Amino acid sequence: MRVNLPNIVTGVRIALIPIFAVVYVLADTGHWLAAALFAAAAATDWLDGYLARRLNQTTPFGAFLDPVADKLIVVTALVLLIGSHANLWLTIPGVIIVGREIVVSALREWMSEVNRRGLVAASWIGKLKTALQMFSIIILLANAPMLERPWVVVGYVLLYAAALMTLWSMFAYLRAAWPALLDGLKHDATT
Questions:
Q1: What is the DSSP string of 24-72?
Q2: pLDDT, position 1
Q3: CA 159 → CA 29, 94, 124, 131, 164, distances in Å?
Q4: What is the pLDDT of residues 159-172, one digit of tens each?
Q5: Domain ranges in the chain?
Q6: Contact yes or no for 51/90 (Cβ under 8 A)
Q7: ∠ Cα 3 8 104 (to 5°)
Q8: Residue-wise pLDDT tens digits, 101-130
Q9: Looking at the predicted structure, is the pLDDT value of residue 40 above 60?
Q10: CATH number of the structural domain 5-190
Q11: ∠ at Cα 26 (144, 134), nearest 5°?
């Protein structure tokens, strides 16, 4: 396996996860630094894909590592936010988003096993969902967990929008994969 620039950028994103988590937990009032680290990590998501295409350095390892890095940073941020906000209003969209990631990751893995990976490729819905997630998480990380603050309310609204897009994209993936899932069930029933 050759190391290339896009994969190094993805590795940096993964390395930023524990740093931003520690900064968030230790910073009583200065959550801006944690939000800035998260934003930098989120920006590398765009950068590694751009570099891979621009430099013609797409690799199977990079295609595997990039979504793993995305899920790790989003799940880490949501767990931190759910813990600090400690309310049902943030927990609901957080659980929806994390649950969807588990379902879609399992679906993609299974589709890959049956050589139908292309049926569950990324779509514009997923890209919009990711953008809403990232913006909402940055806003929520940057502000103390108080619902009286207008920016926190904006973060919640964006997170709920991301959760709705998350459900929409999950159903789109499931609908696209449904024929293959039925074939798999039929095959399992006959063996």
A1: HHH-SS-HHHHHHHHHHHHHHHHHHHHHHHHTT---HHHHHHHHHHHHH
A2: 56
A3: 22, 8, 18, 10, 9
A4: 999 999 999 988 88
A5: 5-190
A6: no
A7: 100
A8: 898 888 877 777 766 666 555 667 878 888
A9: yes
A10: 1.20.120.1760
A11: 55
